[in-house]
Amino acid sequence: MKTQAILLASRPQGTPTPEQFQFETRETPALTTGQVLLKTRYVSVDPYMRGRMSAAKSYVAPFEVGQPIAGGVVAEVIESQSDSLPVGSTVVGNLAWQEFNVADAQTLNSVPVDKAPASYFLGLLGMPGLTAYFGLLDICQPKAGETVLVSGAAGAVGLIVGQLAKIKGCRVVGTAGTDEKVSHLKALGFDEAINYKTTPDIAKALAAAAPNGVDCYFDNVGGAITDAVYDLLNKHARIALCGQISTYNATETPTGPRPEGKLLKTSTKLQGFIVSDYLSRWPEGIAKLTEWYAAGQLKGEETVTEGFDHIPAAFLGLFKGDNTGKAVVKVA
Amino acid sequence: MKTQAILLASRPQGTPTPEQFQFETRETPALTTGQVLLKTRYVSVDPYMRGRMSAAKSYVAPFEVGQPIAGGVVAEVIESQSDSLPVGSTVVGNLAWQEFNVADAQTLNSVPVDKAPASYFLGLLGMPGLTAYFGLLDICQPKAGETVLVSGAAGAVGLIVGQLAKIKGCRVVGTAGTDEKVSHLKALGFDEAINYKTTPDIAKALAAAAPNGVDCYFDNVGGAITDAVYDLLNKHARIALCGQISTYNATETPTGPRPEGKLLKTSTKLQGFIVSDYLSRWPEGIAKLTEWYAAGQLKGEETVTEGFDHIPAAFLGLFKGDNTGKAVVKVA
After folding, report:
1. Which domain holds residue B19?
2. Domain annotation covers residue B295
3. How does pLDDT run across A44-83, given as a tens digit for each residue?
4. Does B253 touch chain A if contact means CB atoms closer than 8 Å?
5. Which member of A58, A267, A268 has the closest CB to residue B265?
6. Are the CB atoms for A253 and A142 separated by under 8 Å?
7. A69 and A184 together in one domain
8. CA dist., res. B151 & res. A165, Å (int)
9. How close B303 gets to chain A, by Cα (Å)?
10. How high is the pLDDT of residue A250?
11. Nearest residue in chain B measured CA to CA from A242
12. Do residues B83 and B42 both lie within one domain?
């Protein structure tokens, strides 16, 4: 069977551009025992993929130039040589940006599409949900009445962090880059939300939004917002360092005020993490998130782009702040 | 009784100078019930006191201008209205820089001078020892075979950290500021020691000294050495942020390369702390340190300045790197 594939054409210097992506028609291999043929339904685009486009050593292996880009995909089994995944099953897996993929059934997880929309298994009930869950609940361990600050709050992970913090009884403050996102955060239950792009003095605005200081900081963006948060930390604050999207496209080492003195004075714990650090606890996390979703305490939020051809644009949009909640591409 | 006292004459801008100190003769108050009159034997000078000389909010209250500076003191009871502390007892407490002090017995701890030299209760078996103990063993939790890097390794805390790391079976690398200190570190069992002042490329030297990367970093100094260590962190590294002496005298916010991206990629935990965070566990720490000292596994190391009049000079010497091990002043 023929399939469209999206290859990494070249490695970006700085912000990626459409030139980094190359469409190609490929032939899918014949199925062998234990394999399934998959029709892509939803493709996930995520900031961490920027790191994989570089050759530099990071926490996941780089993409190869001339090979398909890969990531989280929800797909339907349309041909099966696996007893565990019959035709018609919906699965999630790490798959190539192709309309069709052949994969070993054992590398895929079946998803219960009767419980939530299929795309949610790339967001609220997938990697971003688990990232929010472990980063906030395991690293920050917020207590009722504490103030939780989330940067990139309208992003896939940030929106879930804020909702989880509200479930835990915290005051929740978020930063985002448009007034629309700010309204959305407030509608979702955030106590305060700040448009960092239009606020002239972000440090002052954050201080006003967190009058009792910051106990937990879930950082998705880094840079100037994070600098300002460091000045608001309470004694024994906890920081979950999840992402630094403001610096991912930097071509030189970003510099700024040194945070160590502030972390020292407040006995703050700062923990970098990636969701795979918690692999053994994923079933626990998925079960809890699904429970809160079913109870109506957690909402899934998405920005859906339509069409396989628009995957690169949806990915590039992450760095322009185009998405609210999880950015996914509906392919079929 | 009359006593000499050393007052804070003015708050320093940048590096403190002798002008910040003022000698004055004061009268000690008469004893009331439960109090003792103390003759100062040893005075501790410590980098954290620089913070207390500023008015800025920090983890301990600022010293008052025109009032005596205070800190760790070992003293002998020469007059007593307390049943628990008879004349002749040796105690440690937080006391003014005076030749004589009056204090409530309940604010003092008796020290067993039969077990170790009296001054050691300001160093190995006092606050610096406990700082090393909790920072290394609780925050970093080094495992046998791991690499532990210590900056300011020849200082009061650093020397103990290195020895504790050797007890735990680690490879230990230290940085210090003179060749004499480097030799001393090696004699104490450090696997590698680097003179950061004479090494042209500190990053390269640290990389060579830690060929398997850094698992634990105990940071006393901050600045350029710390920047270089961030590039050597192994996955799941742990950093105990104990001091930042390289920046304590800075008059503007120190800047440098942002560490967050590196901490994120390696899932590193960085924890700022002060020894009082562990107050409830001090008895455990003192007991363990005393046990290792008695067994000959830990050595106390001091730089002793003689004479009450030289307390300011001994304090100022901390910022010039004059001391190896704990800096104390022998008063009587």
Report:
1. 2-123+301-330
2. no
3. 999 889 989 998 766 678 999 999 999 999 999 999 999 9
4. yes
5. A58
6. no
7. no
8. 37
9. 26
10. 77
11. B264
12. yes
**A288 inside domain:** no
Q: In this predicted structure, what is the pLDDT of residue A57?
A: 66
Domain total in chain B: 2
* Terminal CA-CA length for chain B: 17
| B85/B197 same-domain check | no
Is A224 inside any structural domain? yes
Residue ending a domain, choose from A276, A291, A318: A276
Cα separation, A40 vs A100, whole angstroms = 6
CA of A243 vs chain B CAs: smallest distance (Å): 7
A58 contacts in chain B (CB < 8 Å): 265
Asked if A59 lies within 8 A of B265 by C-beta distance, the reply is yes
Burial class (CB in 10 A: 0-12, 13-18, 19+), A5: buried
> pLDDT per residue over B5-39, tens digit each?
999 999 999 899 999 999 999 999 999 999 999 99
Residues in A touching B268 (Cβ below 8 Å): 271-272
The reply to whether residue B272 touches residue A269, judged by beta carbons under 8 angstroms, is: yes
Cβ–Cβ below 8 Å for B274 and A267: yes
Q: Does A255 touch chain B (CB under 8 A)?
A: yes
Q: Is A224 on the interface with B (CB under 8 A)?
A: no
What's residue A321's pLDDT? 85
| A244, closest residue in chain B (CA to CA) | B261
Question: A254 in contact with B at a CB cutoff of 8 Å?
Answer: yes
* A213 and A263 together in one domain: yes
Q: Residue A113: which of A102, A122, A103 has the closest Cα?
A: A122
Of A235, A236, A263, the CB nearest to B241: A263
Please tell me if residue B249 touches chain A, with a CB cutoff of 8 Å.
no
- Looking at the domain assignment, is residue A295 inside a domain? no
By the CB < 8 Å criterion, does A59 face chain B?
A: yes
Q: Given CA atoms B227, B232, B236, B237 in this order, what sign does their dihedral have?
A: negative
Cβ-defined contacts of A109-118 (< 8 Å, 24+): A110/A84, A110/A85, A111/A74, A115/A290, A115/A294, A116/A290, A116/A293, A116/A300, A117/A300, A118/A41, A118/A42, A118/A74, A118/A90
Residues 6+ apart with CB under 8 A from B318: B45, B46, B47, B245, B327
Buried-state track A221-236, b at ≥16 Cβ within 10 A, e below 16: bbbebbbbbbebbbee
Please tell me if residue B224 touches chain A, with a CB cutoff of 8 Å: no
Both tokens assigned to A181:
């996102």
Which of A250-254, B256-260, B296-300 is least confident?
A250-254
The reply to whether B119 and B142 lie within a common domain is no
Residue in A closest to B57 by C-alpha: A265
Q: Residue A247 — pLDDT band, cuts 50, 70, 90?
A: confident
pLDDT tens-place string over residues B120-154? 999 999 999 999 999 999 999 999 999 999 999 99
CA distance B97 to chain A (A): 24
**Is B256 in the A-facing interface, judged by CB distances under 8 Å?**
yes
Of B223, B241, B267, the CB nearest to A273: B267
